[in-house]
Amino acid sequence: MKGIKTALTALLLAAALIFAFAADAASLSYGSRGDDVKKVQSRLKTWGYYNGAVDGIFGSGTLAAVKSFQRKNGLTADGIVGPKTAAAMGITLSGGAPATTGDVYLLARLIYGEGRGEPYKGQVAIGAVVLNRVKSASFPNTIAGVIYQRGAFDAVSDGQINLSPDATAVRAARDALNGWDPTNGCLFYYNPATATSRWMLSRPVLLRIGNHAFC
């Protein structure tokens, strides 16, 4: 009996160590090095949070940039790039979640911030516009890059991107990522009742879904 207890204790300890190692492997902090750090630095530099070298070394400059990004996006400003911060950046860390998880959640947050209350088809259409921009040479070539492009989406500018998406927004994001494009390739949309941009209002409207005009 004593031997069984000892073996069980050893197994539990080993499991705890494995879990701790996995959690550590899926996060970055001051002193970390490698390609994952380069991913973080590259994203932060593109968005204007970081102006240092993309060298894969998590130093004081990267730490300050991560904290700034976290504060801006309603995350705990601890300077650690864990699963939530990585998802907000639209990246996947080695040993972390599947490659699409960050993109699904980020796209769902954008859909929820921009289109909650819209018909389901309209929510999928918002996600499709983001993905159409990713494919276009006129826009950044990543979902995070498109979403965080300066002035691109009101939900980013007013902070609604930080709201937790509901199940409908997550499903809409997955449907868009799986290829459903109700807009047939549109790169823009707006609400005619609230839009003020003359340039946007001058574009030919190809279809309307709910409160949004797509062009």
Sum up the structure in keywords.
10 helices
Number of helical segments with 4 or more residues: 10
Shape: elongated
The gyration radius over C-alpha positions equals: 21 Å
CATH-assigned homologous superfamily of the domain at 99-182 = Cell wall hydrolase SleB, domain 1
Average pLDDT number? 82
Low-confidence stretches: 4-25, 96-100
Strand order of the largest sheet: 1-3-2
Describe this structure in words.
The protein is mainly alpha-helical and 215 residues long. Among the domains are: 30-94, PGBD-like superfamily/PGBD (Muramoyl-pentapeptide Carboxypeptidase, domain 1), CATH 1.10.101; 99-182, Arc Repressor Mutant, subunit A. Helix content is 53%, strand content 4%. It has helices spanning 2-25, 35-46, 60-72, 83-89, 99-115, 120-135, 143-147, 154-157, 167-177, 198-202, and strands spanning 189-190, 207-209, 212-214. Strands 1-3-2 form a three-stranded antiparallel beta sheet, with helices on one face. Helix 4 packs across helix 5 and helix 6 packs across helix 9. The chain is elongated. The chain starts with a helix and ends with a strand. Mean pLDDT is 82; it is low at 4-25 and 96-100.
